[in-house]
Amino acid sequence: MYGHVLETSGFLSNDMAALTMKGEEQNTTTDHGTSSKKRKLTMISGSSYIPMEKLGTLQGDDAHFICAEKKTVGVADGVGGWSKHGIDAGEYARQLMSNAECAVVNGDPESKVDPTKVLDAAYSKTKVKGSSTACILTLDQDEGLTTVNMGDSGFLVIRKGGDVYKSAIQQYSFNYPYQLQDNDRSRTPSGAQVTTLPVEAGDVIVAGTDGLFDNLYPRQIEELVRTMIEGGSDPQDVAWAVAGQAYCASMDREAFTPFTEGSLEAGKSSVGGKEDDITVIVSCIVDDGL
């Protein structure tokens, strides 16, 4: 397993401040007509990556990044079919996410992060052979959570009050997702889905590749996340646990999974979980208390 650690102390510990992603202040009006400042929102993220064991590579086909300073995260899944042509299927995804992170870090410090522009910039600079799904999310104090998603990677927003939002899957047919590919006009960021959602302190965002969402239903992810957050676990620990549960399901020959259900609906036979690379990023939205 591989993890990306941004916060390893308790979920609501006092020493988080140095590692949080801070939003901008926003003025609001009270019932008495006076102006007051809305507290900043903070997003704390942790990740886990479990590459599928296969001959010739230890890196797998997934890639991801977390940019704490710009409160932005991203995941990508290289299309495995390229390996049949002697091409590292994960290299496109890795370069895509590396270029996306560079676009975020090197962007105008006075401007908000636009996930669509980030994906456009990353796509234009990724020239290796291959193709990949992609999902990039950013937290903005004024607009909420803004996302761009291409393919069957995606995210959940788990609201403290009980609601759960699941991003839509983009696919041509079962197990054939939309994907980005260099020199293919039909596979550009213009086909990506852009979403803006309100978020508030207490919300938890779970982003991942299809290795997560093919093996666990949203309700299973939600139950595990809520249990761990309520128990005081930090995002890093939650990400490891969610990825671990997805891995167990992927190796269970008797499990009934979303992939099993999709296969049956497509008229194909499938038993058990789907072995795949599994990437999970868990981001907790909290009030920084200032």
From TrEMBL:
Its EC number is 3.1.3.16. SUPFAM superfamilies: PP2C-like. InterPro entries: PPM-type-like_dom_sf (IPR036457), PPM-type_phosphatase-like_dom (IPR001932), PPTC7 (IPR039123). Keywords: Hydrolase, Magnesium, Manganese, Metal-binding, Protein phosphatase. It catalyses: O-phospho-L-seryl-[protein] + H2O = L-seryl-[protein] + phosphate; O-phospho-L-threonyl-[protein] + H2O = L-threonyl-[protein] + phosphate. One of its GO terms (molecular function) is metal ion binding. It comes from the Eukaryota. Residues 44-285 form the PPM-type phosphatase domain. Its cofactor is Mn(2+); Mg(2+). The keyword Hydrolase applies. Pfam families: PP2C_2 (PF13672). Belongs to the PP2C family. PANTHER family: PROTEIN PHOSPHATASE, PROTEIN PHOSPHATASE 2C. This is Protein phosphatase. It comes from Populus euphratica. The gene is LOC105127312.
